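Late entry, evening session. Most of the bench is empty. Finally got around to the prediction I had been postponing all week. Sequence below, unchanged from the version circulated by S.P.
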Amino acid sequence: MPVDLNLLKIFIAVATQGNFVKAAKQLSIPTSNVSRYIKQLEQQLNSQLIERTTRQMRLTEAGNILFEQSQKWVTELEQLVQQLCFPQALTGTLRLTIPSESGSLLLADLLAKFALLHPQLSIHCDTQLMPQDIIANDIDLLLTFHRGHLNDSSYHSRLIKSWKSAVVASPELIEKVGKPIKINDLSNLPCISSLSALQGQPWIFIDSKGKQQKVVINSTYRVNSGMLAHAAAINGVGYAILSLEACYEQIQQGKLELIEFDDVEPAPIELRAVYASRSTLSPKLDVFLSFLRQNI
């Protein structure tokens, strides 16, 4: 039986995101459709690709092999389609805004490489902490870190990358003020929050059904910097919600302790591309977004 290549893209999204709900959000389709499409792919390949439980999923040996190989195939196919659809060199001006701290570290090399690939395209990149009004400021694209749902429905957004988040605290702080058992316990404990970025308060969690839960936290230390929040957590200022990748080493060293809750986890930190609502993307935006998702 021939394999539907569209099903491969859905499988890659599930494997990358780590669960069906997040993959469905990335693909903008119902979760039930994602599950059905994965079953169809398994039937076409006559092989189980994903082991599912009520709490988690993991790739089988066959699933891992397919994931490693299919990523390369789909990327090469998308690049070929881009070349066929947009054979002429990109021209004009690409105006974008990126986050001033982490965004610059994450995107600096990628922006330079994209500029070298498209020398006839002018790139104007501003760095701002807070999102701007895309239309009022004549911006083609806003790259922003985000947790939870975007509030402004007048804009479209595309997920570029997602990082698992974690609630952490220093062992000294936990001994001093106690350890939260439920997420609402955080309301009565010292916490480190963003000042205005990431919508400040409250903290956002996702339950086992993919629904969003908000907790208003007690925060006297509020900073618009992941680096400042990270340092404050290590020094015992308060509980913090950080990228797990960014604090994994400190957790292993015992400088921070990972706080886990039953049936909920902190919403992932997402890098999203936000742009004005249009029926179709311009070639320069489409090519740039494809480049980011393939290389970041």
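Two things to note before I forget:
The radius of gyration is 21 Å.
The first strand starts at residue 50 and ends at 52.
Will write this up properly tomorrow.
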